[in-house]
């Protein structure tokens, strides 16, 4: 997935954004347009962004999970509010919703890899892994506790597990196989889901 799709702040849905979302998800154009309509109804009309409160309302209505305290919605929003301005754009919104909807191990690992591959080269660099771990940690434990976790060291440990230096990159097959073989590593990317 390329960085450019996370930078879009357009109040309208363009062909380029649709193409990027289709290329980086399993969504059809029709599904993307339906999500966009929901995004617009949730507060994205006008400036192309929704606030944390607007996201909470959407999340509560659509997630179908017990999140009375809003912790999951908070963590999800924080992980995808990449510039920390208190708003997410449509592309960030889509990835936030997709991140919470994956349930089987292969889909979760595939999605994790696609999210990490911000350069779009089909490989994960050390910096891409570290950036992902920062977001995933916020998603898992919240912003305050995440600030106490050394994601650089975690990324170093993962690269050592894959027998890679910081200058090397891993491909999707290496990543998925490694996560399935190492239960502890798999849990980092799948949460509490069992490896199968």
TrEMBL record:
EF-hand domain boundaries: 30-65, 68-103, 104-139
InterPro entries (alphabetical): EF-hand-dom_pair, EF_Hand_1_Ca_BS, EF_hand_dom, Recoverin
SMART domains: EFh (SM00054)
GO molecular function term, any single one: calcium ion binding
Signal peptide: none
Keywords: Calcium, Lipoprotein, Metal-binding, Myristate, Repeat
Keyword Calcium: yes
Keyword Membrane belongs to the record: no
Pfam family name, one: EF-hand_5
Family per record: Belongs to the recoverin family.
Name this polypeptide is given: EF-hand domain-containing protein
Annotated organism of origin: Adineta ricciae
């Amino acid at each position: 997935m390329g960085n450019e799709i996370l930078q879009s702040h357009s109040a309208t849905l363009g062909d380029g954004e649709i193409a990027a979302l289709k290329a980086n998800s399993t969504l059809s154009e029709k599904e993307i347009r339906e999500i966009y309509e929901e995004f617009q109804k949730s507060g994205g009309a006008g400036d192309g962004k929704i606030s944390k409160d607007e996201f909470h309302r959407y999340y509560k209505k659509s997630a179908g999970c017990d999140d009375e305290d809003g912790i999951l919605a908070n963590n999800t929003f924080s992980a995808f509010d990449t510039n920390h301005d208190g708003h997410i754009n449509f592309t960030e919104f889509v990835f936030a919703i997709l991140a919470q909807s994956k349930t089987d191990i292969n889909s979760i690992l595939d999605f994790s890899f696609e999210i990490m591959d911000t350069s779009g080269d089909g490989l994960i660099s050390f910096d891409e892994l570290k950036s992902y771990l920062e977001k995933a940690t916020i998603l898992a434990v919240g912003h305050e506790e995440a600030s106490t976790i050394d994601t650089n060291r975690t990324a170093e440990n993962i690269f050592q597990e894959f027998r890679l230096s910081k200058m090397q990159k891993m491909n999707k097959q290496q990543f998925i196989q490694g996560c399935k073989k190492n239960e502890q590593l798999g849990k980092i990317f799948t949460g509490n889901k069992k490896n199968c």
